[in-house]
Each structure stands twice: as structure tokens, then as C-alpha cells.
């Protein structure tokens, strides 16, 4: 069942939405022809939205048979769909393009259409033109799913009807309903690079580290796209520990800072031998009551508290939500303790920064399982954290050789063909009291359906040790 097929109402009435789309994008019911590029979950949510408003649109996908096409034809049998390559005729007549975040804007057909006058509109732009309640926008290289979910739980605890989605789970346009009092969106750099009218009530860039350099020219361009989340005049929540993010401050804006290293608006302080999450001079809760592994999760909690306070959520309610927050699947998730060895699934660590953050959360050295598709990242950036925090490293996947070359024997390195072998090797290396951490620092698609599949295979292999 495709989520986009459920009947939804808009947060604004349709007349107001159409007026906003015309004002911001010259998108008109009678004269505009919208081409939705990509028939995935986002494309389908866009199609449902455009159909409800009465716009003329077609869909194109480079795949011969996109996975959701049968369900789409059942729901919208009269919609023109072009598959098996990008149809030049469809791009030629389009006045507006809504391009899936999974497709680069450098695609030849897209570049040519834009040169001929077509306008790029994102699903986030369409969403922003359709709501009249606060939006909180969260991006960053690492932690954005955790912070988005934390804030969603805080809003729920406060009795707020909050829509939660974007890059996480539900496409933004499927969140539209009149009862919503708040929307919390996780946004990727790919979503932000094609978004121009977002004005979030509060927004954050949690951190910036090398990621998606196969799509972005360099780290500077990647950071520039992330910075778009601060467009508008809402509250800027700034990670004072990240120099790239700290440099994004804008004069004349309300700024709230967080830090796990120094004093900020939200920070960590030790009082009478106990570490607390702090808001200025107020002790919010003992850090030990946060039920998540790793100090980077303390930073995530501080970011969520800062965002929540910026939109008026009660501090005690937010802390209560944090105390019961169990974390996300495949994100520093404890799988088992077997013969004194703790096995941790951090398969969602698909870039270097996420792996480094996971390693830095440990006080003892760990056995690290890493590797996959490095997405063009410089694996030399892993070396300091691995030297400091890894007892040994087990490598697998497409770019295992790149990582091994970068490490240059700074720690013992072992090679595995698959996850089952990586777990067996790690079990042989581990002693009671050790932790084995799957934190790949790479994408998963070289060997797996997605990072979830990779994490599931790790968990299955670990539980197989019990046999």
C-alpha cells in the first residue's frame, strides 16, 4: 500500500495554496505543465498532491519498471507515464520539474529543460506553500533522524499533533492534514539543494562532515546546501562544537547554541560529581538518565531540547520524553551480549562522520566492522579516531581496499567477504569486556538493499553465534 493514496486535506484551503504556488513559482492550473521526475515514494506523493489540486502533470522514470508502477497505474490510470529512459519530448513541454532527491540536477535532460525555461520546484517547496503551522527543519551529516524522532516524541508528550517525516519515513506531502499543529522535517542535502521557499520556525544543521561527495563537488558545496535550511527568519539552532556550522550564524537572527565541549545555551556540566544536561544555569536532567550509548547522543539530545524550547515546548515534558527514548533501529543499537562481548549495530553510519562519532562515544577500544561504498569520501579522515578508539578493524565491501590503504597498518586489519565472515572474525578477536561495533562509514548498496538490510544481516549473524 502506498502512503500517498490515502485521502488527505491540505493545511490551507486549496485556493490559498494555488495562490501561493502561483506567487512563488508561477505555477498555474491552466498554463503550467509539471513533470515529476522519478517514480519513488516522493514522486508518488507529489503526483497525489498535484492531482488533488487539479494541475496538469506527467511522470518520467529512467527505469523500465519502477517498483511502484503497478500500484500507481491502479490509482492514477489516466496519468501520462514515461519509463525506460528520460523522454526528451516530456522535458521539452514541461514548465516545471519536480525532481526526486535521488536524482542529480546535473542530469542532462534536467539541465537542458532548465536552460529552456523550466523551473525546479521541490516537494519541500510545495509543502511549504501548503501549511500555516510551524515547521522545524533538521539537517546535518549525522544524527538528524535521531533528533527528528526525539523532537517528535517531545511534541507528542506535550500533547501536540505533529507531522514527522521528510527524508525520514513519510514524504513531506503525505503529512498534510488540517489537525496538524506542528511539522518536524528531516531534510537531506539533496532535498535542500532544490528548495527555495522554506522558512522554518526553527532549524538546525547538526554537523557537517564529508558525505555524498559523489554528488557534491566538494565539502564547501555540501555545506552550502546544508546551510539552506536556515533560509528565512526563524530560530537558528547552532552546534558550537562544529566550526563549519558555527560559521553559519547570521546577524539579526535569534540564535540558540548547543555544545558537549563547552558552555553554550544548552550544554553539559558536572555538579557534585554528576553530569547534567543544562539550559543556561538550569539542570534539566542527569546525563546518565539518557538511555542511549555514546556521547554524540548527548549532543543530539541537546539539539532536540534547543529546538523544542525554541517552539515553546515545556522543559520537563521534553526531558521525560528523552528518558524513555529508545533510539532508532540500526543506530547504536545493542544487539546482544554474548560471553561478555557486546555487539552494537550502527549500520546507519553511512559516512565517515557518523563512524567517528560512534567511536568517540566509547571510553574503551572497540573492534570495528567497516566498509562498503565510500561515496568518494577521503578515508584518511578515519585514521585519528581509529588509532584512538579501535583495537582492530574488520573490513568488507567495495571500498575495503581504500580504507585498508588509508589505515596503513596503524591498527590490525582483517578482511571479510561478507557479514557472516566479518562477525566470525570479530568473535575470534573479541574478549570478555570488549564491544564489537558495526559502524561502516560507507553506504550499503554495494552489497545490500539498504543500510537496514545490512544491519539485519549483522544482527542475524551475531545471534547465530549463540548456536
* Estimated structural class: alpha/beta
Alpha carbon gap, first and last residue: 37 Å
Instruction: Choose one word for the global shape.
Output: globular
- The CATH architecture assignment of the largest domain turns out to be 3-Layer(aba) Sandwich
- CATH class division of the largest domain: Alpha Beta
Largest sheet: 6 strands, parallel
Number of helices, where a helix is a run of at least 4 consecutive DSSP H or I residues? 17
Q: Multimeric state of these chains?
A: single chain
The number of domains is 3
Q: List low-confidence stretches.
A: 1-9
Mean pLDDT across all amino acids: 92
Strand order of the largest sheet: 7-8-6-9-10-11
CATH superfamily of the largest domain: Mur-like, catalytic domain
Strand fraction: 15-25%
> How many E-type strands?
20
CATH topology (fold) name of the largest domain? UDP-N-acetylmuramoyl-L-alanine:D-glutamate ligase
Describe the structure.
- The chain has three domains: 3-121, NAD(P)-binding Rossmann-like Domain (Rossmann fold, 3-Layer(aba) Sandwich), CATH 3.40.50; 126-323, Mur-like, catalytic domain (UDP-N-acetylmuramoyl-L-alanine:D-glutamate ligase), CATH 3.40.1190; 333-464, Protein-Tyrosine Phosphatase, Chain A (Alpha-Beta Complex).
- 50% of the residues are buried.
- 33% of the residues lie in helices and 20% in strands.
- A six-stranded parallel beta sheet has the order 7-8-6-9-10-11. The chain has a six-stranded mixed beta sheet with strand order 15-16-20-17-18-19, sandwiched between helices. Strands 3-2-1-4-5 form a five-stranded parallel beta sheet, with helices on both faces.
- With 467 residues, the chain is α/β, with parallel strands linked by helices.
- The protein is built from 17 helices and 20 strands.
Amino acid at each position: 500500500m502506498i502512503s500517498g493514496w490515502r485521502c488527505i486535506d491540505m493545511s490551507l484551503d486549496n485556493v490559498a495554496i494555488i495562490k501561493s504556488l502561483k506567487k512563488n513559482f508561477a505555477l498555474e492550473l491552466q498554463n503550467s505543465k509539471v513533470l515529476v521526475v522519478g517514480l519513488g515514494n516522493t514522486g508518488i506523493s507529489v503526483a497525489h498532491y498535484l492531482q488533488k489540486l487539479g494541475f496538469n502533470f506527467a511522470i518520467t522514470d529512467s527505469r523500465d519498471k519502477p517498483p511502484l508502477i503497478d500500484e500507481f497505474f491502479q490509482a492514477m490510470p489516466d496519468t501520462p507515464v514515461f519509463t525506460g529512459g528520460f523522454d526528451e519530448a516530456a522535458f521539452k513541454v514541461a514548465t516545471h520539474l519536480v525532481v526526486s532527491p535521488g536524482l542529480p540536477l546535473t542530469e542532462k535532460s534536467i539541465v537542458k529543460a532548465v536552460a529552456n525555461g523550466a523551473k525546479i520546484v521541490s516537494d519541500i517547496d510545495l509543502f511549504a506553500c501548503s501549511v500555516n503551522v510551524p515547521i522545524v527543519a533538521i539537517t546535518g551529516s549525522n544524527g538528524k533522524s535521531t533528533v527528528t524522532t526525539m523532537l517528535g516524541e517531545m511534541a507528542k508528550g506535550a500533547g501536540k499533533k505533529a507531522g514527522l517525516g521528510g527524508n525520514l519515513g513519510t514524504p513531506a506531502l503525505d503529512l498534510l492534514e488540517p489537525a496538524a499543529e506542528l511539522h518536524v522535517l528531516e531534510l537531506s542535502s539533496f532535498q535542500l539543494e532544490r528548495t527555495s521557499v522554506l522558512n522554518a520556525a526553527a532549524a538546525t544543521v547538526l554537523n557537517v562532515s564529508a558525505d555524498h561527495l559523489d554528488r557534491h563537488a566538494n565539502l564547501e558545496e555540501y555545506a552550502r546546501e546544508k546551510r539552506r535550511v536556515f533560509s528565512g527568519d526563524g530560530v537558528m539552532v547552532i552546534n558550537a562544537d562544529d566550526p563549519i556550522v558555527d560559521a553559519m550564524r547570521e546577524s539579526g537572527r535569534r540564535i540558540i547554541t548547543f555544545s558537549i565541549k563547552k558552555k553554550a545555551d544548552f550544554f553539559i556540566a558536572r555538579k557534585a560529581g554528576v553530569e547534567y544536561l543544562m539550559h543556561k544555569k538550569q539542570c534539566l536532567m542527569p546525563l546518565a538518565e539518557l538511555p542511549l550509548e555514546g556521547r554524540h547522543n548527548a549532543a543530539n539530545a541537546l539539539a532536540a531540547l534547543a529546538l523544542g524550547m525554541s517552539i515553546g515546548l515545556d522543559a520537563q515534558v521534553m526531558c521525560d520524553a528523552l528518558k524513555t527514548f529508545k533510539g532508532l533501529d540500526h543506530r547504536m543499537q545493542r544487539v546482544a551480549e554474548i560471553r561478555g562481548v557486546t555487539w552494537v549495530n550502527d549500520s546507519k553510519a553511512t559516512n565517515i562522520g557518523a563512524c567517528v562519532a560512534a567511536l568517540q562515544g566509547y571510553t574503551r577500544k572497540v573492534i570495528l566492522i567497516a566498509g562498503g561504498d565510500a561515496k568518494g569520501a577521503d578515508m584518511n579522515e578515519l585514521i585519528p579516531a581509529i588509532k584512538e578508539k579501535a583495537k582492530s578493524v574488520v573490513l568488507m565491501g567495495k571500498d575495503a581496499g581504500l580504507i585498508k590503504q588509508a589505515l596503513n597498518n596503524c591498527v590490525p586489519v582483517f578482511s571479510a567477504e561478507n557479514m557472516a565472515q566479518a562477525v566470525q572474525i570479530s568473535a575470534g578477536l573479541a574478549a570478555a569486556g570488549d564491544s564489537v561495533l558495526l559502524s561502516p562509514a560507507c553506504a550499503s548498496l554495494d552489497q545490500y538493499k539498504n543500510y537496514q538490510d545490512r544491519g539485519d544481516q549483522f544482527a542475524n549473524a551475531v545471534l547465530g553465534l549463540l548456536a
